[in-house]
Structure formats: C-alpha cells, structure tokens
From TrEMBL:
Source species taxonomy: Bacteria, Pseudomonadati, Pseudomonadota, Betaproteobacteria, Rhodocyclales
Stored PANTHER family: 23S RRNA 5-HYDROXYCYTIDINE C2501 SYNTHASE, PEPTIDASE U32 FAMILY
The name this protein goes by in its record: Collagenase-like protease
Origin superkingdom: Bacteria
Domain Peptidase U32 collagenase: 385-501
Length: 635
C-alpha cells in the first residue's frame, strides 16, 4: 500500500514515561526533546531515555522524532552534530529541524522533518523544503483548507508528508516569527525559552488614545481542536496529525491521544484505502474527554476561514467546564445548582467581581452543599461555577488506562514428527515454531478443536491478541496434545514473531536533495529568516539568497520592528475591522501591559499596525532586553 495512504497520530513526549503512555494510548509516533537544542528547554531528556523510548515504539512500528528545532550559534553546531549522531545510534527515526545550518553538517542518514518554526505557509516554501531533503513538513497552524490543499498539490505525497497541528495550545504569532520574548526578556522562543508574554493581561487603546479594552488577555488564544475537521484535513492532503503539549501533564497526553485515536480509527474503519501509521489497536479503561484536561476553550482557528471567537481573553488558565450556578455562600461552604454531580477532590473555579479567575478544591460534598478546603475568594451568589479538575476522571487516568495489542492470525499444522505453529501479524510479518510430540485422536473432536484454539489464543502476557476465529487448524484431525506442549509451542512461535518483527523494522530513509540545488522562493531574508550561524548563511547562499540579515537574536535590530505577525486581529475581535464596519479605517492601535498583577516585562506600549490586504496584525516594538533605561513608545 502507498506510503501516502498512511495516517499518523503524532503525540508529545515530555519524558520516557510520557512517550510510552502516548504509544499505549494509540500514537503512531511521538516527538521528544533530547538533552539540548529543543524548542521546549524545560522538556529535555537523556539519550539513554530516548533510546529506551525508541525500543518501545519500534515494537509497534511506531516512530520516535527528536525535536532539535532551535536556531543555533556557531559555537553550538558541533555539539548539535554530535547529538544527531547519538540520536541516530539510539534508534531515533527522524529529526525535527528549524536551523538550516544543520543541513550543511556531516549528519547520519537520518530523516529530516521541517519544524513549525520554519513558518511554512506557501506552496513555494513547502516545495523548497521538500526539494532540499525534508520528508515531512509541519504546516503553519493559520492555514485554511484551501491553502493546505494548494500545498499538497505541489508536493509529492510519496516523498514528503504534510503534518498539521490538530490539538493544543496556539501561538498567537506565526511560529518562528515571534521575537517579543527575546526583545523584552532576552529569552528567545527560537531558542526554546519563550517567556509567553502573550498570555499576560494587556490594555488596548485606539489611535486617539481612547480605551477599547482594559486588563484583558488580548493576545491569548483558545486552544486548537480539529476534531470535527479530521476527514476534511485528510482529503486536503494532511497525513500526520500532531498534538501539541510537551509541557503538559500525563493525564492530558493520555486523554487527548486516546480521543484522536478513536476519531481517526472511525475514519480508517470507513475508508479502507487508508491505513494506520503504526501497528496495533489500543483499548481504554476510560472514555476520552478532551474538555476534562487542560484547555483554554476550543477553536478550529482558521481551517474553516476566520472565526469571530478565537481569543481566551478572560484567562490564559484552565477555567474548566461550567457545571452550575452558586445559590448562596457561607464561610467555606456554598450551595450550588449543579448540572453535573460534584465529588470530593474536585477543583472548582469562578471569576470574581474584578474578572480575575479564582479557585479552590472540594473537601466534601453534601447533596447541593459543597465544602471547600479553604474560604473562597470572591465567590458570590449568582456566580457561574466551573470544574477544572474532575477528581473521578483524573483517578481513572492515574494508573494503567490503556492497552495496545497487535492482532495476529495463527495456523496450526502437522509436521512428520509433531506440530508447527505459524503466527502472522496484521502487516504480514510471519514466524513459526515446531515441537516434536505424540498426536492422539481425540474422543470429542469438536471439544478438542475448541480447546486447541482457546489455548493458542492465550496471549495475555504478550503484546499480541488473537480470537478463536483467527486460529486455523490445518491438521489431519483436532489432535489431543497435552496443553503444556501446546503452550510451549505458542510461546516459541510468539518469541520467533517478536524477533521477526524486530528484523523487519526499517528506519525511514533520508530523502536526497534535488540537483541542481533548489532555489529559495526569495532572494533576500530579513531578521525573521532566523539565520544565526555561518552554516545557515552558506545554506541559503547555495540556494540563491543574496541578501541575508542576521537573526533577531543577534541583537542587531535596535529600531522598532515587527515583534509578532499574527492572523489574530484585535480590530476584528472588537468589531473595528473595515470589513465589518463600512467607512472605518484600520488606523494603528496601542497595547499597554497591565502591571497590576506584578508583570512588568514590557515597560513601553506596543504599536499595532494592520495589514488588511494580508489580513494580518503586526505587533511592533523595540528590543530593550539588556539595555538600561526606558524607551519612548515604538513608532
């Protein structure tokens, strides 16, 4: 079957344990950070743990992708090269890369994937990355279905798979095009150290200085949820479905991975021309509910064109799902008119009179009366109550909550001096074992056949599963054979199949770059090209780029520049868009950081400029990190 027909569910692995859990819960591939150079600096892992994860993943023909997706200084390139070789020797299947300087190094023949930090929004950029040797490219989250299809039309699905984020946190800026964190804190998102200033509260003023919004999280977006668009994305050409969350907790990984496994399996069961990206079927001891673990609300973002409600302006935290209204409050207790049953240990949240999210844990529930661990802050009668921790659900996820098994077929047949058992997995890998034994005719042939099938199906301690209908008895008769010998034959055949599967596993091949070298879509790169080392500069020159600016992280940009470029538009959010209101002009606005909650990273207002032709908002400011004193407003 064609490589282009395989659908891959790609899940985050914060650590070895998280990666194993993701695979158990149905992931076809996991992405994990190594010791250094990952875009989540707080989610690093030893090479030994990465190797252990690869061994586990390969049992199910699942892949392990190493995130090496930061931009690198010249003095870091050799360390990165050594890390790539270590990862290759550890069994890693592919690298997720942002820095093109890596392609100029002496690397092993490991497959390359282009990170979301590469800002892949156009067919030209996608085709270029395919032609320089990338086998999988992560498309920008902001694309709509037509744009995804246009990229699929110019790329070779057999050679380069399209990957798309289907769940999790959304960066407000185009990925790889955000420098606000480095500008104000010295912590670069392109270096894995984003300070997440976009999640802070801001105030918005129009061109005349008139307040539009006060103390709201204006750059904070809801979380991505493409549950309803999976079939559409498949038809548009997406083949790898990525879940964000290398910093999320284990219940999130289990719950969300299981949810998308179920959704993709429903599609696969109805469309035989498609297949799973890895082997095995997962079963769960819980019903997946993405709304039960961390989220900021949900949006399908721009997949179905611009939506009016994509912002999480009230809070960047996990508010939870509404479960009722408070009737009265007395001390540490309150009465609630609940739509769902509450339980001891639940986490509850509400907004106080100032619009600040508050919360507390439940100590005891007596009917409609809820007792809290501590006195609630700002909770009043009439407040909407949210549950952001479902203790019963979390308990279901606390222990073993999934099992992944590979279906097999068996065939028992005669040999001149005994019996042989052939076992074949769902992908056609087969092995056999034989025993020497006496075969006696059974008094009850029907019962003997059922006993043989039942004994051969006892695969409980292995990674395989078979039903009696999956066992063919191709023997002259349903012989009576001592069960101890049948069990030994089954164990030997299973061991042989494990060895055969290990021998059949092949690391995906590195794609060759086209010759002569493909030309980059532009002949110049500004600071947003993220060129931070001499090897990256050599790469782009070799591909036809003539003017190459240094990355913003080189600290050469001192004037006002675009610190973010985003499809999220605050004019649109507040009904001030020229497409919404006739006669209105897209005049600049300003963002002021609210310092009432102790945040003072941004000490000057940021200018907002609106490019209505591209339907984009630019957040403009100056680099102040490492500089003394305050600057005047940008622009």
């Amino acid at each position: 079957m064609s490589h282009a027909s395989a659908l891959e569910l790609l899940a985050p692995a914060r650590s070895l344990d998280f990666g194993i859990a993701a695979i158990d819960h149905g992931a076809d591939a996991v992405y994990i950070g190594g010791p250094t150079f990952g875009a989540r600096a707080a989610a690093g892992n030893s090479i030994e743990d990465v190797a252990a994860l690869a061994r586990y993943a390969h049992r199910f023909s699942a892949r392990v992708l190493l995130a090496l997706n930061t931009i690198l200084r010249d003095d870091e390139l050799e360390g990165a090269r050594r890390l790539v070789w270590q990862a290759y020797e550890a069994g890693v299947d592919a690298l997720i890369v942002q820095d093109m300087g890596l392609l100029e190094l002496d690397l092993p023949p490991i497959q390359l994937h282009a990170s979301t930090q590469c800002d892949i929004r156009t067919p030209q950029k996608a085709r270029f990355l395919q032609d320089v040797g990338f086998s999988q490219i992560v498309l920008a989250r902001e694309l709509n279905v037509a744009q995804i299809r246009a990229i699929a039309d110019v790329t070779d699905r057999e050679r380069c798979a399209l990957e798309f984020f289907v769940h999790g946190a959304l960066c407000v800026s185009y990925s790889g095009q955000c420098t606000i964190s480095h500008a104000f804190t010295g912590r670069s998102a392109n270096r894995g150290e984003c300070a997440q200033l976009c999640r802070l509260p801001w105030s918005l003023k129009d061109a005349d200085g008139t307040p539009v919004a006060d103390r709201r999280h204006l750059l904070s977006l809801k979380d991505n949820d493409q549950t309803g668009n999976l079939a559409t994305l498949i038809d548009a050409g997406v083949r790898s479905f990525k879940i964000e969350g290398r910093l999320k907790d284990l219940p999130y990984v289990k719950n969300v991975t299981a949810h998308y496994r179920n959704e993709l399996d429903r599609i696969l069961d109805a469309r035989p021309e498609l297949r799973r990206g890895a082997a095995g079927r997962s079963s769960f001891s819980f019903t997946p509910r993405p709304d039960k673990t961390f989220n900021r609300g949900s949006t399908d973002y721009f997949v179905n064109e611009r939506q009016g409600d994509i912002g999480a302006f009230e809070s960047p935290k996990f508010v939870g799902t509404p479960i009722g209204r408070v009737a009265r409050v007395q001390g540490r207790s309150f009465a609630v008119e609940a739509t769902e049953a509450l339980a001891n240990g639940d986490g509850l949240a509400w907004f106080d009179a100032a619009g600040v999210l508050q919360g507390a844990r439940v100590s005891r529930v007596d009917g409609a009366t809820v007792h809290l661990v501590e006195a609630p802050t700002g909770l009043v009668a009439g407040a909407t109550l949210y549950r952001n921790l479902d203790h019963v659900f979390e308990k279901q996820l606390a222990g073993k909550s999934a099992e992944r098994r590979v279906p097999v077929r068996m065939r028992l047949f005669d040999t001149p001096d005994g019996l042989a058992l052939a076992v074949t997995d769902e992908r056609g890998v087969s092995a056999r074992a034989e025993i020497v034994c006496d075969k006696a005719e059974a008094r009850d042939a029907v019962r003997a056949a059922a006993t043989l099938r039942e004994s051969l199906c006892k695969l409980g301690s292995t990674m395989f599963v078979a039903a009696p209908d999956d066992v063919a008895l191709d023997t002259a008769a349903p012989w009576f054979v001592p069960l101890a010998q049948i069990n030994a034959l089954r164990r030997a055949a299973v061991d042989a199949l494990l060895q055969a599967r290990a021998a059949a596993w092949q690391r995906p091949a590195r794609a060759a770059a086209v010759e002569p070298p493909a030309r980059y879509p532009d002949t110049s790169l500004n600071y947003l090209g993220n060129v931070f080392n001499a090897r990256a500069r050599e790469f782009y020159r070799r591909h036809g780029v003539e003017l190459i600016a240094d990355a913003f992280e080189a600290n050469h940009e001192d004037g006002p520049v675009s610190l973010m470029i985003t499809k999220h538009c605050l004019r649109y959010s507040f009904n001030l868009c020229p497409r919404q209101v006739k006669g209105i002009r897209p005049e600049p606005m300003t963002l002021w950081q609210d310092r009432g909650e102790g945040h003072d990273a941004v000490r000057e207002p940021l200018l907002l400029r609106f490019d209505c032709k591209k339907c984009e908002m630019h957040v403009i400011g100056r680099r102040v990190s490492g500089k003394a004193g305050k600057r005047r407003p940008a622009g």
